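REVIEWER CHECKLIST
Item 1: Sequence provided? yes
Item 2: Single chain? yes
Item 3: Sequence as submitted:
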Amino acid sequence: MRSIVLKAFFCLSLGIGAYFAAPEMALARGPGVYNVEGTNPGGNGTYSGRATLAQTGESTWKITWRIGSQSWEGWGIGDGKVIAVNYRSGGTTGVILMIEKDGGGYESVWANSGSTAVGTEVWTK
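Item 4: Structure as written out by the authors:
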């Protein structure tokens, strides 16, 4: 878990630096529909579902998740390799940091607002 968080921080730092250094190279890399496998914060169970990632601007994104009977919606910023997203469903809000995996898809860490524990997700096409 710690290695995912450290990798995410490192990649986010590189991604933001690269974006501001050469914005013309910040190309969309991740739009599409993904299968999602996740682990709840604190290791309290697993889940699966589907998510749609859509690019809404040069560096902005919209994500919709369907996990069981729940729907989630998020808005984020990033270059397609690294995307930081604020999400919500009903009265629950939180953040997710998505890092592009080698070979496609994403590894992500997330937390609901006010939480002290982190969950994970793996996205594959």
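Item 5: Key structural point noted by reviewer: The first helix runs from residue 2 to 21.
Item 6: Recommendation: ____
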